[in-house]
Write a structure and sequence with these properties.
Elements (H helix, E strand, L loop, with lengths): L1 H20 L5 H33 L5 H21 L1
Helix pairs in contact: 1-2, 1-3, 2-3
Length: about 90
C-alpha cells in the first residue's frame, strides 16, 4: 500500500506541474505525459528495493525467508498497481 500511495501522490503532483506548464494540452494527453514521466522512477525504485530484499532472502536464512518473500510480493504488487491507481 505504501508504494502504491507514494507513487500515486507523485503522479498527481507531476500532473499538477504539467497542468501549469502545458495549459493548452488536452487532459488525456497530459495524464499520459505525467504517467510516462514518472514511470521510470517507479520501476527503478521497485527494482532497487527488490534487489536489496533478494540479497536478504538469499543470505538471511530460513528465519527471514517468509518475511522477505512477503515484502517482495508487496513491492511487486504495489509498483504494478501504482500506475493504475493514479
Amino acid at each position: 500500500i505504501g508504494y502504491s500511495m507514494n507513487d500515486t501522490v507523485v503522479v498527481f503532483d507531476r500532473l499538477r506541474e504539467n497542468k501549469r506548464k502545458f495549459k493548452r494540452m488536452p487532459l488525456l494527453e497530459m495524464i499520459n505525459l505525467s504517467i510516462n514521466e514518472t514511470l521510470s522512477r517507479t520501476i527503478i525504485t521497485g527494482i532497487t528495493a527488490i534487489l536489496a530484499l533478494a540479497s536478504l532472502m538469499w543470505l538471511g536464512g530460513p528465519t527471514l525467508f517468509p518475511f522477505v518473500f512477503a515484502m517482495i510480493f508487496g513491492i511487486i504488487i504495489g509498483t504494478y498497481s501504482s500506475i493504475y491507481v493514479a
